[in-house]
């Protein structure tokens, strides 16, 4: 019988709203907050507006140093601080997150509310002891079972209580002064906050102005009546959590404060308050209709008779496009009537534009619309402007079209994140993100899972990215509960409407997303209805809108059938979404969707290819499938950047922190490390693979013997003649020919066979010949310089070369055998083979120890996140981790006359044959033959490893590089000879794990000046060199915990499982079958060659091969 201990909390608490604090009431989302509007600035002249330099507008920035007070509990906050002297308060930079400035605790949670009720302190400290004390628990249960029961009986019942904040709620109070210019008299003054987490009360000159919540959109207040010319004071009190935080349960760092810019803006009493620009193309996508719907506000007592609004359109070169401005009487705009039935016509100002240059991600041509408000004497009272693009977005025929072309979205999900600034980014950070995306062949970005700063969209407009703009709604920890509660309707609607109103004029935005992982219900449906009517020029997306219960093949969520079918269970979605969106569908399920007879809408993966740790395997297979079906329109990788926060350990060593590193509770550990790029915005190995797979020109072999390749132009709008196509021909790693394909013309979407005009080759013995084709920018673009490579392909030419083999001599080898070992000696080397182990336990060359720990079988790796979290190899195939130590010698045959030792090892029914052959020069030929019984699970690696002297710090190899690569992620890597230090080739993941592998390796050399060791494969190998032990790599939580070992770990693998790339939490995290080791027999062969002096390593390879 369970002891009396009540932890179950009721969701019915929402009936108590009337008694709530104002920041705990979903009906109280704002006070005196102005309606959402498009981002624009008030200029004094049309010329200023045309230049789009907001520094010349009626604007003052309040970014900079503010006075700041922080308390951990809301009840400790200063109540009348806006009236007090705060000169002794701390200084804080605005914008920023206060957690990044040393106040409070950053919290990383994937899903679940950090402010939900807490476990008792004793339960947090020692859950099992507390559980046994308070519950009747049977004796003899395992620790794992105790934790399972603790979760089921206790932790799982600690549920959130919307709209209440049931933990201590930190509060930050901000104060600063600012100056209103004299010439702002008789102007409307607006105080603008770009983003504040999560709720704030605003005061100006000791008077309460208003309240706002919603962390990722602007809050604007009319402060005209509160300010005066000269010095003024603004005060803001920010609550870390509020009822709105229940709608902000996104997978990212939970940080607080004024994290986006703060501005004071002025505009005339009669002003262009807002405007919406649409561009509609004709049926041939040639001519356009420019439509503008302005909103004019007018102060009381102002006569606007005879006033006009003029619209001018300027080309990308700032030349006037229209023969005359489009003009509209201001009173006709202000007094526009709305009919009893039907609705008003959208284009209050409109003009046909003949043959405009169109905007697309490939060619982001921007025009400028300038609106001028003129009084009766034709004086300009105010001017505003916007960069616009002429483009048409359509969903039809199960596809997504831009300007009449069916496009694919090579996208990525992006969180606001900086390793130094947290959730507060500079304009430079935002621009760098867009430039990096362009340079790595992304053409789309999803603003997961909230609207970004307006400047980010400006950069997408400018450089060319398709944007899926997402509302700041995620109720992951409550699933679909809130979208089905009418009292939360206003909060849902407000977030969607304000996003659309602010961002409506950006040509880069092609779709609106209603949020993420928040279930489905009337609150979402209502928001979709508003968006569909307000903006029919873009599609609506919401992945949570899955299934129609009335459909004959509907599968109920949570049912056994649903769990079996997974994320692609239901064949169609509510009609208020325009695309079918899924997350993390594996290849089979994605193809089933593409073939479904019930689906007529385009299909996208709004999240896929979970790039956690060492991941992004089988990305090529995803895109092979996407290209096979027109209705698969692409997707967005999860996600853009590792969300590491730069910090230091107790020894001052810097590292990137993740969940739990700040003592944050709850936390989800390193689940925030999913980026295609690293936390400091440097490329990771998988970044290059993503670029390769998404490259806009596909090059495949046609008839390589005769220099023929097939080129497919995947651009939607550009002919290939706008780019430079060059080629090089290498003999091994030496360039012997090169050229440029002049005049190559290939229309978008077309393909043809192209001849590469290399001259006849006189092949050398044992050489390989590599043809490399490169597609580069012919001229500078605003996002990259001429010469930037967009696409590439390397081919091995099928050239028959003479195969020669150097004569092997073993007549000067001696065997010295004892009960424990066999010592094999030659002119300048000595190897020791242990009789008990059957392994080469050491190897000396020139009296120096080269192999310092045994060359032994190796079937494991320091587990990747996908291995451990999803595939769970530590449970399913754990036998292979310890198997080398369980092998016993069944037979050892040493033949001194042939300098050969044959060993047979076994574990139960598994057998492993190792054969060592020695030459006079000290070369050891190793043969490896493994037979796995049917009942044994698959290994994760088949190979050997050894410890090598740390004196050998220089590394060279002939194989795929320069960055690490794996069997399911090696398309971008190229075969060449690479040189550097061991550390140069070791890639540090934020949470250490398997890394630094290279595939297709012909040889690997470790050297120190003139001596060293070379590994040569009879067939291509997979190799890696670690300065650390495998155990250290696996156990370390951060790179600062890695300790240089007393030997280099050298892995010589025949095969290794891929890294996977579907997700990181289910069996789908396992590599797809073609990259698993499912065979039951493996054989390979390699040589260990001592290096006594400087030599041409490639020549050694040719001679030895």
From TrEMBL:
Record has Calcium as a keyword: yes
Enzyme class, UniProt record, top EC level: hydrolase
Oligomer status and interactors: Monomer.
Enzyme Commission numbers on file: 3.2.1.23
Entry GO MF terms: beta-galactosidase activity; carbohydrate binding
Annotated GO biological process: lactose catabolic process
Cofactor(s) needed for function: Ca(2+); Na(+)
Keyword RNA-binding: no
PROSITE patterns: GLYCOSYL_HYDROL_F2_1
Pfam families noted in UniProt: Bgal_small_N, Glyco_hydro_2, Glyco_hydro_2_C, Glyco_hydro_2_N, LacZ_4
Domain Beta galactosidase small chain/: 823-1089
Signal peptide start and end residues: 1-18
UniProt xrefs under Gene3D superfamilies: 2.70.98.10, Galactose-binding domain-like, Glycosidases, Immunoglobulins
Catalytic activity: Hydrolysis of terminal non-reducing beta-D-galactose residues in beta-D-galactosides
Name under which the protein is recorded: Beta-galactosidase
InterPro entries according to UniProt: B-gal_small/dom_5, Bact_Beta-galactosidase, Beta-gal/glucu_dom_sf, Gal_mutarotase_sf_dom, Galactose-bd-like_sf, GH, GH-type_carb-bd, Glyco_hydro_2
Highest taxon listed in the record's lineage: Bacteria
Family named by the database record: Belongs to the glycosyl hydrolase 2 family.
Keywords: Calcium, Glycosidase, Hydrolase, Signal
GO cellular component assignments: beta-galactosidase complex
